[in-house]
Design brief:
The structure holds 3 protein chains of 3 kinds. Chain B is mostly helical. Chain B is built from 13 helices and no strands. Chain B has a single domain (36-72, 91-344), classed as MetI-like fold (Orthogonal Bundle). Chain B is globular. In chain C, helix 6 packs parallel to helix 15 and helix 13 packs parallel to helix 14 (297-306). The radius of gyration of chain C is 24 Å and the shape is globular.
Chain lengths: 351, 345, 345
């Protein structure tokens, strides 16, 4: 149970290690803290699920670990990929990593292929960029093989994107991201825009990829079912921060953070008899709540919660959680464990 | 307004002010981005307005600003002005081949230009906008026929169309008096060119608005076509009009100058016209006489630029497709002291 | 492959069928305009003092004594057989004028288009990629100015600078007199540049090229403003597309993202607009030819208009209408070839 960085150790099979990553956007209203102090590791061949409400910074985090942010975004912290820090890396080096080492699978497959280019041209362009030493025939072979693994027949290789359905396009996009066999892939809500049957196909493909190529995947989703099905570990994100991170089964069985608990309670299943929802709106990332960002909506909030940000602690079940309910007790001021009076905040805010 | 009757602790008034009310609420809402404009677009708008304003002042106060009349070729002592004299104390911009003062032609020329353009824009708007509204809203064979005719006119080289009309209209407006008949026929020739533009833009936006759920809803609830067009459709396509009007005015100015240059515009005895002046200056250019061509041309460029800048910045501000929110520079500050760290055990 | 190319012929047929009413409407408008024109064409061509019998004879030969409906039929019948009429002021046929003067205009137009495309696409892509930088402001200003400056004024400025001041280039005409005479004797295509190459007259070719620079650049500047503006907006919008981010995510180099993905896709609407520029080019050609005394069809049209030569004016305008429609047809085909999606819609 510790929060000091010195004791932090990186396991040898870690592919990507994110440390205290912050990504802020400047707007006329002020800085949007889309990602605000996030740390996690991903191991080789592991799928880490990243779950949270819309607008909590999931997609920004996914883009951020690939260095794919608008120029005006401000990034601080470290993204260590196989020992190299992607933050502050030259554009040229970063570009050469994207494709052969880092891949991105998108949410909306319909618009991600250039409508004026044949599918074949997309593949050849990517291969030519990163492996110019291959012959044209080798590139063709490679592309057709990868597409074949995704269930796209070779006869469709020279078709235009508009000749494919949404599910097929997503499989093409996955093939395109994987044709160079990258070590790390971000899948940003890869099935949200697709129907349920296609969703199952895509998840099976991702599972195959992980098994066959030892690819590490950061799977971003707001669907807890997908996490349970596809991920070993899960990180629950709230308002630009990670609330809880741990083994997916353990987190779902025994959520340590009240937010995770509420999120799980809000899911609908066949046994659902009444709908549960978390009161209040997701926080404003320009002026986030003080202390723990979940405290205004937290049923278990204590007086310490709005005062100090909870440090990350590791529970007995090996879950990392940032919540004062789990301590560290020695950092809670006297009387801080008393339940938070809601009205009191209202008055305090107005004063 | 209600705030007077409320206690001082009541809700802040500005929140209510933002809700557009009254007759022109739609237009005001549409123009709100103009008022909120910042930075470059705002300055572009200001520069454009300033340029246009200069010529408007010239046009209105021409007799007071201009040192001579545009047909005057004798000075106070009955001496003829020198022919094609370079700029000097008596003639700031020199004199031209017609023995008249170039500066006076610039000043009176603004009057001609703005009169023609104003008439042309107003008439083509009055004809093009309603035609586009009704054609787009009702559809059917009338719409298809109108579209074909308008497309044909739009496809045809605009200056040639204007020349042909000007050719046909020569002397047809004699009843308006000598000084106005030329202006009227030039304006009508230009009008014919621009009606299709209003028609097309308005019709196309009506067609897209017509299918919007709220228009559909109004129709289902039994609103009369006139109400639907007037309140729902017009209100949502009207924001295109200021943009087209200013851009068309700029283009019309060039068409007018082109007509004048080819000898089919306002006649030199009726008014001073920059295009005609440039035609007369053409023969002298190879001989190095620059002042008779540079100044009238500059006048056209400045006025057209002014109108274009106004139109463009209005378009940028009113057209959300082109508007983009620029991200501002930001510094990451560690305001909570303690940074959470994840310990991956 | 087979899927996408299979529907192209069908698309072409549909497109061709749409052209027919367009042509019919344009030609009818031309016909009507020429009938409501003031003055009697025959009287105008023979001069005021011709005896009545001569006028009647001429009137009969030209078919002006027939009913309007019969004249309308004759008009279309002639066009179908490639006969656009014979001048009343000279004994040339419209076809002859189109072949000779038209060739000169074609030479000018092609030169102008090359200048316009090189400048417009180059500047447009550059400032679209670097939007909101000083480069962008400068490029946009250049675009506005090329649009705002009348063609003939740019022409006059060029004459002042390159002819009167620097003595670098000839002020007017398509070639020096001797070259003119030689090339007219060598008339293979009537296009001087081509004829000079065919006859191996390299001195003549150089002379023709030197004469072509100023008029070509003048007319090219008029058109390039539109390209700059359009390419810029399209590049900006295309760069926002999802597939651009996807290409970057695959590590495609930035210059390739801009040129291969953004530029090519931004070009599709530009190709469509080139079609509309044909009309602008024709309007501009009339002015440019007058400015540089270029013996093209635009100058011929103005000459025949001044002579009140109705047959010739009607013939030339008819040819213009046909050119505009054919260009738009060709452009649509090219668009369909570039963008596979068009064939399906």
């Amino acid at each position: 149970m510790t929060t000091t960085p010195e004791l932090h150790h990186v396991r040898p099979d870690t592919v990507m290690s994110v440390r205290d990553l912050r990504i802020w956007y400047g707007t006329a209203r002020g800085a949007v803290r889309a990602v605000d102090g996030v740390s996690f590791d991903i191991r080789r061949g592991e799928t880490l699920g990243l779950v949270g409400e819309s607008g909590c910074g999931k997609s920004t985090l996914g883009r951020g670990v690939l260095g794919l942010l608008p120029d005006a975004a401000k990034v601080a912290g470290h993204v260590l990929f196989e020992g190299e820090d992607l933050v502050g890396m030259s554009r040229r080096r970063l570009r050469s990593l994207r494709g052969p080492q880092l891949g991105l699978i998108f949410q909306e497959p319909m618009t991600r292929l250039n409508p004026l280019m044949r599918v074949s041209q997309h593949f050849l362009e990517t291969l030519r960029t990163h492996q110019p030493e291959l012959s044209k025939e080798q590139m063709r072979r490679r592309a057709i093989d990868t597409l074949g693994a995704m269930g796209i027949p070779p006869t469709r290789f020279t078709n235009y994107p508009h000749e494919f359905s949404g599910g097929m396009r997503q499989r093409i996009m996955i093939a395109l991201a994987l044709v160079l066999n990258p070590a790390f892939v971000v899948a940003d809500e890869p099935t949200t825009a697709l129907d349920v049957l296609v969703e199952a196909q895509i998840l099976t493909i991702l599972a195959d990829v992980k098994r066959n190529f030892d690819t590490s995947i950061l799977l971003i989703t707001h669907n807890l079912g997908i996490i349970a099905e596809a991920c070993e570990r899960v990180a629950v994100m709230y308002a630009g921060r990670i609330a809880e991170l741990g083994d997916a089964r353990a987190v779902f069985a025994r959520p340590a953070h009240p937010y995770t608990r509420e999120l799980l309670a809000s899911t609908i299943s066949l046994s659902t008899t009444s709908l549960h929802y978390i009161p209040g709106a997701p926080p404003d990332l320009i002026a986030p709540p003080s202390g723990c960002r979940f405290h205004p909506r937290c049923p278990d909030a204590m007086t310490v919660c709005p005062q100090r940000h909870p440090p990350v602690v590791t529970t007995e079940l090996n879950q990392d959680v940032a919540c004062w309910l789990h301590g560290p007790d020695d950092q809670i001021p006297p009387g801080g464990s008393a339940p938070l009076e809601r009205e009191a905040i209202g008055v305090a805010d107005e004063a | 307004m209600t705030s007077e009757f409320m206690t001082p602790t009541a809700a802040p008034v500005p929140a209510q002010r933002q809700v557009g009310r009254g007759r022109f609420a739609g237009l005001r809402r549409a123009l709100a981005p103009v008022a909120e404009a910042r930075g470059l677009p705002k300055w572009v708008l200001y520069v454009g307005c300033a340029l246009v304003l200069v010529f408007v002042v010239f046009a209105i106060f021409a007799p007071w600003i201009s040192p001579y009349s545009f047909t005057q070729y004798l000075d106070g002592h009955g001496h003829r002005f020198p022919k094609s004299a370079p700029p000097n104390v008596h003639h700031w911009f020199g004199t031209n081949i017609m023995d008249t003062d170039v500066f006076s032609h610039i000043v009176y020329g603004s009057r001609t230009a703005l009169e023609v353009v104003a008439i042309a824009v107003v008439i083509s708007m009055l004809l093009g906008v309603p035609l586009g509204l009704f054609s787009g809203y009702y559809g059917g064979p009338l719409d298809r026929g109108l579209v074909l005719v308008m497309d044909a006119m739009f496809a045809f080289p605009s200056l040639l169309l204007a020349i042909l009309i000007a050719f046909l209209l020569r002397g047809k407006f004699g009843f308006l008096g000598a000084s106005f008949s030329g202006i009227m026929s030039a304006a009508i020739s230009i009008t014919v060119v621009y009606i299709p533009q209003y028609f097309r833009v308005i019709r196309n936006s009506v067609i897209s608005v017509r299918e919007e759920p709220y228009v559909e809803a109004a129709r289902i609830l039994g609103a009369k076509p006139r109400t639907v067009i007037g309140r729902y459709v017009f209100g949502n396509v009207v924001q295109n009009v200021p943009v087209i009007a200013t851009l068309n005015a700029a283009d019309a100015l060039l068409t007018l100058a082109g007509l004048g240059f080819l000898g089919y515009g306002v006649q030199p005895t009726e008014a001073a016209e920059w295009g005609y002046d440039l035609q007369r200056a053409l023969g002298e250019a190879a001989g190095g006489i620059w002042w008779t061509s540079v100044y009238p041309g500059l006048a056209i460029v400045l006025l057209v630029t002014g109108l274009t800048l106004v139109g463009e910045s209005l378009n940028d501000l009113l057209n959300p497709v082109l508007r983009h929110r620029q991200l501002l520079p930001v510094n990451i500050v560690d305001d909570e002291g303690e940074v959470p760290r994840d310990d991956d055990a | 492959m087979a899927r996408s190319s299979g529907s192209l012929p069908r698309y072409l047929v549909t497109r061709l069928l749409l052209v027919i009413p367009m042509v019919w409407i344009l030609l009818t408008v031309v016909f009507i305009l020429m009938r409501v024109a003031p003055g009697d064409p025959v009287q105008a061509s023979l001069g005021g003092r011709a005896p009545q019998a001569v006028i009647e004879k001429q009137r009969h030969e030209l078919g002006f004594d027939k009913s309007i409906v019969a004249q309308y039929g004759d008009y279309f019948n002639g066009i179908f057989h490639g006969d656009f009429g014979t001048s009343t002021s000279s004994n040339r046929t419209v076809t002859d004028v189109v072949a000779h003067e038209g060739a000169a205009t074609l030479e000018l137009a092609v030169a102008a288009m090359i200048f316009a495309l090189v400048l417009g696409l180059g500047i447009g892509v550059l400032i679209g990629r670097y939007r909101d930088t000083p480069l962008d402001v400068f490029g946009r200003l250049f675009g506005v100015l090329t649009y705002a400056a009348p063609v003939f004024w740019i022409g006059i400025l060029f004459q002042l600078l390159f002819v009167a001041k620097l003595h670098w280039l000839p002020s007017s005409g398509q070639a020096d007199t001797l070259v003119n005479i030689h090339l007219q004797g060598e008339a293979h295509t009537n296009i001087y540049l081509v004829d000079a190459v065919i006859s191996g007259d390299w001195g003549g070719l150089r002379n023709v090229l030197v004469h072509l620079i100023l008029p070509g650049l003048t007319l090219g500047l008029l058109v390039c403003g539109v390209f700059i503006r359009l390419v810029r907006v399209n590049v900006i919008q295309t760069l926002k597309h999802d597939y651009i981010e996807a290409a970057r995510a695959r590590g495609i180099p930035e210059h390739r993202v801009v040129l291969r993905h953004a530029f090519r896709n931004a070009l599709v609407p530009v190709v469509t607009v080139i079609g509309l520029q044909a009309a602008l080019l024709l309007s501009g050609a009339v002015l440019t030819e007058t400015t540089f005394n270029w013996p093209g069809i635009g100058q011929a049209l103005i000459r025949y208009l001044n002579n009140r030569d109705y047959v010739m004016v009607q013939g030339i305008v008819t040819v213009f209408a046909l050119i505009v429609v054919s260009v738009s047809l060709v452009i649509d085909v090219v668009t369909a070839l570039i963008d596979p999606r068009v064939r399906y819609s």
